[in-house]
């Protein structure tokens, strides 16, 4: 099990990035959350099996069709015991 925080930058707001991330996380069985940040980035916290969390982070490097991701900064994070994946506002 692992937990990470990832900040996704580029054209990632206004392109349904959070919605797509939530759908992909649920498909992978990853728990946590995703939210827009005031600086235009998207921040997410993901917990789950190593391979599933890694797959979600890899997906974030491209994102949904309308996104233009310039960077994904990932760091280890403490597990928060999330039981689902949700979009935070």
TrEMBL record:
Enzyme class: hydrolase
The reaction(s) this protein catalyses: an acyl phosphate + H2O = a carboxylate + phosphate + H(+)
Stretches assigned to the Acylphosphatase-like domain: 3-89
EC nos: 3.6.1.7
Top-level division of the source organism's lineage: Bacteria
Gene3D superfamilies to which the protein is assigned, alphabetical: 3.30.70.100
Pfam families per the UniProt record, alphabetical: Acylphosphatase (PF00708)
Active site residues according to the UniProt entry: 18, 36
Keywords (A to Z) from UniProt: Hydrolase
Alphabetized InterPro entries for the sequence: Acylphosphatase, Acylphosphatase-like_dom, Acylphosphatase-like_dom_sf, Acylphosphatase_CS
Family: Belongs to the acylphosphatase family.
Protein's name in the database: Acylphosphatase
């Amino acid at each position: 099990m692992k937990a990470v925080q990832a900040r996704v930058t580029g054209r990632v707001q206004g392109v349904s990035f959070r919605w797509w991330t939530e759908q992909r996380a649920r498909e992978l069985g990853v728990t946590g959350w995703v939210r827009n940040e005031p600086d235009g980035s998207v921040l997410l916290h993901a917990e789950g099996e190593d391979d599933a969390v890694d797959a979600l982070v890899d997906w974030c490097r491209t994102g949904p069709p309308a996104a233009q991701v310039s960077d994904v900064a990932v760091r280890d994070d403490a597990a928060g015991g999330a039981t689902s994946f949700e979009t935070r506002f």
